[in-house]
Amino acid sequence: MILSPDFVILTAVGYVGLLFLLAYLSDARAKAGNAGFLRSPVVYTLSISVYCTSWTFYGAVGTAARSGLEFMAIYMGPTLVFVGWWFLLRKLIRIAHSQHITSIADFLSSRFGKSSRLAVLVTLIAVVSITPYIALQLKAITTSIQTVSVAKGGGTDHLATLDEVTLALGVAIGMAVFTILFGTRNVNAREHHPGVVAAIAFEAVVKLLALVAVGIFVVFGVSGGISDIYARAVEAGVRIHENEPFGSRWVAVLLLSACAVICLPRQFQITVVENSNEDHLRTASWAFPCYMLAMSVFILPIALYGQSTMPAGSNPDMFVLTLPMRTGHDALALFAFIGGFSSATSMIIVASIALSIMVSNHIVVPLALRAASLGEEAGERGIARLLLRSRRISIALMLLLGFLYFWLTQGSDALAPIGLISFGGVAQFLPAMLAALYWRTATMKGALAGISCGFVVWAWTLFLPSFATFSPIVADVVANGPWGIRALRPEALFGMEGMDPLVHSVFWSMLANVSMLLCVSALTRQNALERIQAALFVDVFRRSASFQPRILRGSATTSELFFVAERVLGWSRARALFDSAGVPHRQTAPQQGVPADFIARLERELAGSIGSASAHILLTKAIAGDAISLEEMMQIADETQQAIEYSHALELKSQELHFTAQQLKEANALLKELHQQKDEFLSQVSHEVRTPMTSIRSFAEILMVPEDLTPEQRVRFVNTIHNESVRLTKLLDEILDLSALEQGERDWENVPVDAEQVLEQAIAVCEALARKRFVSIENGVRAGSCIVLADTGRLSQVFINIIANAISHNDAKNPVVHISSGRSEEGYIVAISDNGPGIPAVYHNKIFDKFVRAEPDGMHDSQGLGLGLNISHKIVGKLNGRLELTRGVLPGACFRIVLPIWQPADTAAVPEQA
Amino acid sequence: MPSPPATSKEEHAEREDVAFLVPFFGVVLLLPPLLNLFGDLRTAFGVPVEVLYLFGVWLLVIAAAVLLSRRRQFREATPATEADQASPPSLEPPGRQA
Lengths: 914, 98
Known about the structure:
Helix content of chain A: 55-70%
Largest interface: A-B, 61 and 53 residues
Number of strands of chain A: 7
Largest sheet of chain A: 5 strands, mixed
Strand content of chain B: under 5%
Radius of gyration of chain A: 52 Å
Order of helices and strands of chain B: HHHEEHH
Structural class of chain A: mainly alpha
Oligomer: heterodimer
Strand order of the largest sheet of chain A: 2-4-5-7-6
Strand order of the largest sheet of chain B: 1-2
Low-confidence stretches of chain A: 374-380, 544-548, 550-554, 857-862, 907-914
Number of strands of chain B: 2
Mean pLDDT of chain A: 80
């Protein structure tokens, strides 16, 4: 006899020792910065398979034997969640990383404004929901040990005489001690437990190998393959088809298992909190479903083979153990036992660590913080010690609760229903969780109402009835309703009878949960912190991961903060944190203020150890009651807004300055050009003045010596002097005129005048000159009376100047000047053309400039000074008109004057030019 | 980060939606109306057809997930924990100016 119960238990203890060693070594490696393989996607995936507990290992076979394919729904749900990782789990992990989330309670509380109430509620619900699950593991271990004992027919072993309850108590105590030693040796940064993860991954391999080994043994060892098993089952009268079509129960189990793989505290811990790299999820998205597939593939054959060959009345949950034992394969049975044992231990370890973190962070620490003032707790790492102690106690408490549940509900045989009760409890977190991820305006009160209502309904319809076998009172309530109110019967609420109890509970609890969440959220408002957190969670992919709003004002002094940090994180980590941020922390350092950024960062670091709600309370307290109020939030927002506006204004101003500088530059360039023009003008004027002066002077000098001159000569010279003086006077007149025009005449007044009349007068003035030069003036088409806004004298000056030019520069044999006028869209147009030599092309562009004379060389007309056209051009410009050189009816030059026609209503619109 | 041209960006967004196909068809294929198409007494190789169907869908979903996870748009470099723990860039908001 190899498999005595003593031997089995010793093997289990040895196996636990091996796990401990493995965890210890892994922790040491991780600490040495040599995590390598421990942080690989493979280990991550394997550790997620903590989902497959002894429920899977033993219970799935039982479920398959009792109710066919339903067991598959337990694995299909998680499969669907994982293949949809891109939308849900990825976001969850990204948020957990950026917010230093430590548990599912922390996640929900952090999202809904770091609410302590919500954290406490979630923690309590998690504890209550997981209790049956832990009881399930205790039951599986106990039953498996008993199975071994009974099968071996109660030898002389003293352990074999123990009854079920004592054995379970022993197992619970052993597990508690092991988990405490294992999982709470220190308070880690961000609650990473590389040692635990390594051990869980190892256990995942062990349980998979054990189940597959039994499966291969059953399918290929004792039968001839899958078909043979089915044939044998049909022969033995076992139903191989589903009893009834898949219906609501299948859907309910699928839904619950999908919820559970996200919301179970241990799954959240392993999948989200312990995740070291988001990219690992990509691998896990298919590798974890693969693992579950491998776990399930042999479940049906084992169940069918067991049903067809085992004696009636044997527990189908234990087929994995009893089948090998029955055929005398004790080594395989031992391996199977170890597999089942490892699946139970991994669940207990992770679940109780996750729950103890929640209990200590969300219940013990806030209570301690409220009860004692910060200074009282002695010791350097007061809070760290408090955390460890409370975690150890809560682990023991969890196992005790599990044991009590086991003890109270011993009557039930099957494993699976217990597990589904737990699933139903944690599924209450899912609506709030989805709202946390995708619904920005979901409020804390909504989440609180939804979760608590769902929980109450679940407790009434599913949790309470599970005690019916133990308590006659409960059995009576289940049968007849409380105080005989039949509408409130737990398994037939409001008379909804004939439904599967699980479906019934899932329906009512989810209905209550979701509707409360929706209604209360819609009717209540978020506070400022909730709004900030909601944006951080919902928009986690839209902003940089490290962005954190300032939540606490920076009014704490460094030494106060260091005191707080030291007590939670320990001296060395606190110092490293302060040093890396360049914040002084020694007692001797000046008590200066701390940047708000640093406080936000410190809060996140603390949240990584004690949860966000506690970290918030702690820092709030440390900063002398500097809790954030809505007003302060608004003020901060206001300040930021002002700063933004100010910087925007600065930007505008600098643009303006730039623009002004640009304008100044342009003005400067213009001034320089004008300056140069003035110089040129002066030199030209001097030149123009010098020529007549020189001739006047030389003739005057000649006349000073009268004896050499004949009277005729004398007369000629005096005439010349006279002519030159006239020319000089004219020049000076024109320069004065030009200067007056350029400076802007004071008495220049534009009044409505008849331009046609002015033109007539100008032609009349020029008649004499034309006759003297034998030039004939032709009158072309005329516009008739046309009113423009002008100064009569100036306008007449322009006409006279241009007509006189046309007359005096015309050297044709039969000189003709053609004058016509008309109206067009442009305004009143006068065209004056001649049949003279025209203006050479080189002068076309500058004919209106000063001192430009468009004359062939050697033909210097003493009359032309080169200022006339320039003056005319300026005058027409002042009248808002145009003077231009065009091609006319005669071969010579043609000047066109365009003036806007005056319309009485338009008076105001005529822009004045200075 | 140089901004990619609009077309490739759209393409990128479009291809992210591909990830939804697997869970969607997984759910549809694993829920009653379709599931019960195979719930009769047929067998293949001695195994009930509904069993083969369930495992078949399961394998199909896993295979699709493997293919998807290998696509480029789902392998974006994601921040590791260590990088995440590094100090955040200073985002000191400017103070109030007179």
